[in-house]
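STRUCTURE REQUEST FORM
Protein name: Replication protein A subunit
Source organism: Tribolium castaneum
Requested output: structure tokens
Priority: standard
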Amino acid sequence: MKDKLTAGALLRIMKGQEVEEPLVQVLVSKKISSRSAETERYRIWASDGDYSITYGILTLPPGKPVEDFSIIKLKKFVKSEISNAKGPQKILLIIDSEIVTPGHQIGVKIGEPVTLTDEIIASETSSTPKVSTSEPPVKQPKSEQSTSLNQSISETRVLNQINALTPYHNKWVIKARVTNKSDMRTWSNSRGEGKLFSFDLMDDSGEIRCTAFRDMADKYFNYLQVDKVYYISKCQLKAANKQFNTLKNEYEMTIGNETIIEECLTDDGHVPQVKYNFVPISALAEKEVGNLVDVIGICKEASEVQTFTSKSTNRELRKREITLVDQSKTSIALTLWGSQADSFDATNNPVVVIKGAKVGEFGGGKNLSTLMSSQIKLNPDIPECHRIKGWYDSEGQYDAMTNLSERVGGVGSFQTAWMSLKEVQDKGLGHSEKGDYFQVKATILLVRSENALYKACPTDDCNKKVVDLENGMYRCEKCCREFPNFKYRLLVSMNIGDFSGNQWVSVFSSEAEKILGKTAQEIGLTMRDDSEAGTAIFQAANFKQFIFKCRAKMENYNDEQRLKIVVVKVDPVNYEEYNGYLCEQIEALMV
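Status: completed
Returned output:
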């Protein structure tokens, strides 16, 4: 009967390999709570005849439970992980399935499956067990269990994927590309002093950060080069510090004395190159402060390196300001730091490619800056580079550019016009291609709490709304991924008014949080647990005054043009400065 199942399928699935519609046996099932009345969920113990998992979640239509010992075909499923008191727990979420043979026709467990553990999943053995009986497996000699790491690790036949690494096992070898490397940095505190550098690694399964300290930093700093591929083994893994590490991995690595790193001298192309998701410079006007973006542009201008002392750390810092332009005929300021500022060569207007630049704002204008994790390249051999260079050489260098970094705020020396809300209507703002900016001191008259929150992609650099699959998973169409969780984001509609009238405006998460005094996550959890208390958070903002810096743009809705006003920045009213501005206006009227 064992031939009725897809032997070894569960191991391959939990290793992250693709398995097409495998057949497995449901040994035990227990109904658990479901978030939707249209589906029922069962926790199951499943077997493929060779291996079994004790934590599977099976989603079924209401009133159609699966019998124990049934054979089912998995049509749509995803491997995931949850945290419990014992640490991370791997689970299998079965979203769509088909009963092949009902349990009453079988009535027994097929084979003698071995329960899958982290050690088995991460082992370098083959995907079939050593034994098929209930007797304990015979312990193999150490030399036969895995490749000896005293020999060249490049000779290993089995490689591990980055997304499969955990602190619970240490016999692994990865083959990965260095995508970014920091400067060598030093530190000094009460516990001593030393040096360190970090670098980012990527394979076809994911990415991870690795850090070297003291002697290890000296040993590997010059050896490890960006874009080269290396075999790496025996690093220490620990939970990633998300305050400094924005990579999409819950772990990070540290190089130790036993670490082995060997360069892969024959790059066969199986380790992917860095992938970019370029955002046009003009679209950065709509990005929220703190977002990380991939940008490509021509360096039109570059300043000299500036040196100054940080007030907070008393350390000397170096930066260089460059101006980027692209085919959207828009420019933006980019700040480079440290060695990136020192080594930047602006000769012949190079094409600049940045992965993970941080969106910032100063005086109401947008800008970009690099982080330790940002990757910057000049004139890379990619199609987008050739296209933008051809545009600039033929016409772009002569085009007028809209400066996205131009200051548009501040009392006394601001460049954005002060307007009353009636003036915005009377002057017909919003008809320019990029929209028109203005600022106004206004009072919040009404905040709509309905539909002010939405469930967004949980990744750091994506705020796209997710689709609830009603099986415990949420899908982000932008990332083409499914997640067992989400994050709350705000998109608040509110009515503001001044002496001349009132206007509905839209406020995104970062500025809405300033107004409401709480984070989107805090508000979302409150609304979930107590809707009245959540509504009260929104109502508490009524009748508060702010300086609203806004963008007005005419948009089409069902072939009808309407004025849409988005708040790009909110500031508390500095009445001393604002009164000074009013006095200036009064004096101008008296001339």
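Reviewer notes: Confidence is low (pLDDT under 50) at residues 124-151, 408-415. The chain has four domains: 2-122, 154-263, 281-403, 417-586.
Form closed.
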